[in-house]
Amino acid sequence: MTEILRVENLKKSYDGFLAVNGVSFSVEQGELKALIGPNGAGKSTCFNMLMGQLKPTEGDVWFDGEKITGKLPREVWRRGVGRTFQITGTYQSMTVIENVQMALMSHHGKLFSIQPRAWKLYREEAFEFLETVSMQDQADRPCSILAYGDLKRLELAIALTHRPRLLLMDEPTAGMAPSARVELMQLVADIVRDQGVSVLFTEHDMDVVFAHAHHIMVLNRGELIADGNATEVRNNPQVQEVYLGGGTLFKEAEDA
Ligand code: ADP
Ligand code: MG
């Protein structure tokens, strides 16, 4: 397998408080990997450093063999690292397919050619992306009337228009009903399998994590305490300690 992302000794300090404290890991091409941990563990801080939103205090990030530490978000994105946002970033006044067409215009460097005719541009290509997320039936609906779960799928289609090799998803299923969460992550898992894209995601719902992730990392107080497959993580004493009393981490997984 080819390593697509490598993180070495990543640290982020806020006035001496180490939100992320010496994190090292890698993600392989075609891997669906979860980063879990209690609230405040440092997951979002990690993600923001990978994307270039935050400068690490220490450590390095390599993408596809190239050091990208300290590069701007746009430069990281151009190299093939995409992300979906926790708050959906669609244009409410446009239709579903128009949102995808907008993203494609941006991808093809045509953002400034907006004119009535522009809405013929990339319509077919946009339709294909909607098919990928099973949204083709909703192509011409305004985004303002979409159900929340459908907005999330649209957001995923938009992220895919840039043909990322690695997709970062910070709590992609936040605010969704349990069944919709499983469905969305099933879709992501299908895309990983069919397109060979890598996905790193954070998630609170352990059913979703254990059902779909190839590998799971556990972050606690800024430090990585586990990195392995479901069985390895489940049997890790440090992980059990962190989640002890917290309730549901292993229940469903053990029942299965
Ligand atoms: P998670 O995403 O795992 O819930 P975060 O990465 O958001 O955790 O936060 C990790 C820790 O860093 C928390 O204790 C949080 O309060 C702290 N933190 C995050 N951003 C800042 C900031 N800009 N200034 C100071 N502390 C921060
Ligand atoms: Mg977070």
UniProtKB/TrEMBL annotation:
<keyword id="KW-0547">Nucleotide-binding</keyword>
<dbReference type="GO" id="GO:0005886">
    <property type="term" value="C:plasma membrane"/>
</dbReference>
<dbReference type="GO" id="GO:1903805">
    <property type="term" value="P:L-valine import across plasma membrane"/>
</dbReference>
<dbReference type="GO" id="GO:0005304">
    <property type="term" value="F:L-valine transmembrane transporter activity"/>
</dbReference>
<dbReference type="InterPro" id="IPR003593">
    <property type="entry name" value="AAA+_ATPase"/>
</dbReference>
<dbReference type="GO" id="GO:0042941">
    <property type="term" value="P:D-alanine transmembrane transport"/>
</dbReference>
<dbReference type="GO" id="GO:0015808">
    <property type="term" value="P:L-alanine transport"/>
</dbReference>
<dbReference type="GO" id="GO:1903806">
    <property type="term" value="P:L-isoleucine import across plasma membrane"/>
</dbReference>
<dbReference type="InterPro" id="IPR027417">
    <property type="entry name" value="P-loop_NTPase"/>
</dbReference>
<dbReference type="GO" id="GO:0005524">
    <property type="term" value="F:ATP binding"/>
</dbReference>
<dbReference type="InterPro" id="IPR017871">
    <property type="entry name" value="ABC_transporter-like_CS"/>
</dbReference>
<dbReference type="InterPro" id="IPR032823">
    <property type="entry name" value="BCA_ABC_TP_C"/>
</dbReference>
<dbReference type="GO" id="GO:0015188">
    <property type="term" value="F:L-isoleucine transmembrane transporter activity"/>
</dbReference>
<keyword id="KW-0067">ATP-binding</keyword>
<dbReference type="Pfam" id="PF00005">
    <property type="entry name" value="ABC_tran"/>
</dbReference>
<dbReference type="GO" id="GO:0016887">
    <property type="term" value="F:ATP hydrolysis activity"/>
</dbReference>
<feature type="domain" description="ABC transporter">
    <location>
        <begin position="5"/>
        <end position="246"/>
    </location>
</feature>
<dbReference type="Pfam" id="PF12399">
    <property type="entry name" value="BCA_ABC_TP_C"/>
</dbReference>
<protein>
    <submittedName>
        <fullName>ABC transporter</fullName>
    </submittedName>
</protein>
<dbReference type="InterPro" id="IPR051120">
    <property type="entry name" value="ABC_AA/LPS_Transport"/>
</dbReference>
<dbReference type="GO" id="GO:0015192">
    <property type="term" value="F:L-phenylalanine transmembrane transporter activity"/>
</dbReference>
<keyword id="KW-0813">Transport</keyword>
<dbReference type="InterPro" id="IPR003439">
    <property type="entry name" value="ABC_transporter-like_ATP-bd"/>
</dbReference>
